[in-house]
Amino acid sequence: MVSVLVLAGCAKDSGGGSDSGDSGDQAGGQSCVTAEAPPAASPAASSSSAAGEKVDASALKVGLAYDVGGRGDASFNDAAAAGVDKAKADMGVTDSTESTAAGTESEDAKQQRLNQMATEGFNPVIAVGFAYAEAVKAVAPKFPDTKFAIIDDDSVQAPNVTPLVFAEEQGSYLAGVAAVHKSKNCHIGFVGGVDTPLIQKFEAGFLAGAKAASDKVKIEDDYLTPAGDITGFNDPGKGNVVGKAQVDKGADVLYHAAGASGRGVFEAAKANNALAIGVDSDQYNQKTVEGVKDVIMTSMIKRVDVAVYDYIQAVAKNDLTSLPKRFDLKVDGVGYSTSGGMVDDIKAVLDGYKQQIVDGKITVSDKPE
């Protein structure tokens, strides 16, 4: 009995055998949150799309050059496709074409894809993703009367090229806050597809938002492939392996910025009783991940659909000056989804942080610390 009492006393002195506040029992639920909630938000900003404006785009032939994964990736490419589909419904676009990049294709293949669209009279031609930067730079000068747009890159300086870029770090900041509020273990994870400056913006915002909400949260942080290997955007199997590894370490909310590989992250979360945060599209409502939607608590929405739609509208009006320089929280270019109702209870908190970013009271770095 004396031995038992001595051991019990030692356990009490050492904090019950736990070396941190990251356990589910000690840090569960809202106890992970250490920051005060921000002030209530003012009325939300309206979308950048011109609501109710009647524009006739029936004369346009739209070319859409997808990144790897193409239509059906439940993420980035599907969002671009949704923008064109809405332009067809609202503005009368009747002629369009689509083509998808392969995971290992050469620069010549990308140039050939854009060349073919422009040669066949498609105008505008929209390149979906920064991987097309060199191809757009090479092809656009050959077709001065064709308008090109490129998503996620602003390096191409040409009079007929329009960059469509986003504040991914701002939307990801809200994802980080949401992850902390929903984590029972005070332990969350980020899974990036390819380690590039673009995906680092998602990572940077997520880390910053999580740390703003909690000074004790533990964060797993992994990429599927290094820069130069774009297969990380289209490898659900690898996403599953990395997601499961993070859950095994204790993470119970996983945020991915990994394109079609995100399906594997969702599957890992579902199989291991964790939650997940989607990206780009409202992934709770995406058919290709319908079987795992019950773990998708929210998605960081990157409104590629809005950017593509607005760009087509601007081309039809022959007024590209109407487009924002960057699609950020202020113009609803990024944001978060509420499908499934799993973040309804923290919506006021998320909107409060959003308002502080919009008002300039919080500046979100696009580089991870």
TrEMBL record:
Residues 12-53 are annotated as: Disordered. Its main location: membrane. Residues 20-51 have a biased composition (Low complexity). One of its GO terms (cellular component) is plasma membrane. Residues 66-364 form the ABC transporter substrate-binding protein PnrA-like domain. It is found in: Cell membrane. PANTHER family: ABC TRANSPORTER GUANOSINE-BINDING PROTEIN NUPN, TRANSCRIPTIONAL ACTIVATOR PROTEIN MED. This is BMP family ABC transporter substrate-binding protein. The lineage of its organism: Bacteria, Bacillati, Actinomycetota, Actinomycetes, Pseudonocardiales.
